[in-house]
Amino acid sequence: MNKDNNLGRVLALLSLTLLMSFGLYSLPDTLFGYKIKKVDLLSDFKVKEEKLSLDSLKQQLEQADTLQVDSVALRDSIMRSAGIDSAALALRDSLYKAVYAVQGADSLGAHIEDYSLGHIGLQRFFAALKNRRELNRPVRVAFLGDSFIEGDIMVADFRSGMQKEFGGRGVGFVPVTSVAAQFRPTVEQRASGWTTWSMLTDHEHGYTLSGMMFEANEENASIHVKTTKRYPELQTFSSLKLIYEQNKNTEMRLVCNASADTLQEMLPATSIVTQYELEGMFTEADFTFKNTPEFRALGVAMEDHLGVVVDNFSLRGNSGMILERLDVSRCQALNKIRPYDLIVLQYGLNVVSDSVMNYGWYSSRMVKVINHIQLCFPEADILMLGVSDRSRQDDGEFETMPAV
After folding, report:
1. DSSP assigned state of 153
2. What pLDDT, in 10s, does the model give residues 227-284?
3. Is 253 within 8 Å of 264 (Cβ atoms)?
4. Alpha-carbon dihedral of residues 99, 385, 156, 133, nearest 10 degrees?
5. Which of these, 274, 287, 299, lies nearest to 214 by C-alpha position?
6. pLDDT in tens, 48-100
7. What pLDDT sits at residue 28?
8. What CA–CA distances, in Å, run from 44 to 47, 229, 319, 396?
9. Other CB atoms closer than 10 Å to residue 276's CB: what's the count?
10. Bridging pattern class, strands 296-303 and 237-246
11. Half-sphere exposure of residue 298, counting CA atoms within 13 Å on the CB side?
12. Percent of the chain beyond pLDDT 90?
């Protein structure tokens, strides 16, 4: 009798559990503005249907606010204004496609698609690489992005490949400090006595490519940088630079390579972006500053005078749209002391949303950003990276977001 009662209780409990599960499955997708994850006991047995077909994706992407451009009319207009011969352009297009087809056979590589008229979008950068021995300076690349390149992710391999092929040493620009300082494998760094300003939250100061500025807030503010052995090209460098944008009467003390000698210098007064440079053979440097009121620094550069330098300007949480606020005069002053031949833009992940399929508004803003960067750095070519993969979890499985 007791066994029958226990069996009945178990069956009642199972029935109640099933009813609750089916009840939870019947809940709406959102409740009070919060997204609810459905409980589905049969999810492992169901054949999952695609959420969005190609036709529905196309329909959403063709909604009203998507940029509509007549590419043929635009192309013809540009050709007429530039006086370009259509036959010569057709020949160039054919050669480009032929070369790309041959190179494209290597599935391990990543290729650059040049959509510019005549495929000359990176002409100045390629010319700088070709004539690098006559430049009397390194070929410089500025790599801008969000947390995707934080800590030199991806950029380190790009830098290493470029320096192996075209020469050069050093990690390039290093901000006074950053959120990636503790886990960046390509440089050891630490700093103390600084207030950090970021263009993500600050609208009062003007900014350059790094999007950050550092103001000394105490005597003996310090910066320490040291090379690493992660890549052979990073172990030593020959040009050490301190880049700062404001100074009144600051005294700098510099110790290089952990030696017993201390170099003392009165930094020249300035209200524009400038640099202090020391030549030699370096593996580490310790900067200490005194009389620091009104002293603002950007960072340190560890590089060579020849070859290729790749500066990583990562800024966590940056969608790229704030670059429209780059200060033109400061950027042009930076370009005088550090002329850039190529500016790479890696953005987009921070604006991708599960509920948005149309990004015409973002495209419009980024066109303005590119125009502004060209105003700030008129001699640099600009390369945009396509957005990387981003996943979402759906029914216990990770899948690429439809917007990507």
Report:
1. T
2. 999 999 999 999 999 999 999 999 999 999 998 889 999 999 999 999 999 999 999 9
3. yes
4. 50
5. 299
6. 554 444 454 445 444 544 444 444 454 555 555 555 566 655 655 655 555 55
7. 74
8. 8, 48, 38, 10
9. 17
10. antiparallel
11. 28
12. 58
Between CA 86 and CA 107 the distance in angstroms is 33
C-alpha Rg value of the chain to the nearest Å: 28
In the numeric block, the tokens 């880049």 are attached to 243
Residue linked to tokens 């066109």: 367
User: Domain ranges in the chain?
Assistant: 1-40, 122-400
CA–CA separation, 97 vs 119, rounded Å?
10
- List CB contacts of 191: < 8 A, sequence separation 6 or more: 176, 177, 181, 214, 221, 222, 223, 224
pTM score, whole prediction: 0.78
In whole angstroms, how far apart are CA 103 and each of 19, 95, 118, 124, 205? 60, 12, 19, 22, 46
The one-letter amino acid code at 247 reads N
User: Which of 155, 172, 144 is CA-nearest to residue 299?
Assistant: 172
Higher pLDDT, 74 or 287: 287
Alpha carbons 122 and 128: distance in angstroms, whole number: 10
Sheet holding 342-346, edge to edge: 308-314, 139-145, 342-346, 381-384
* Stated length of the chain: 404
Strands (E), 12-130: 30-31, 34-35
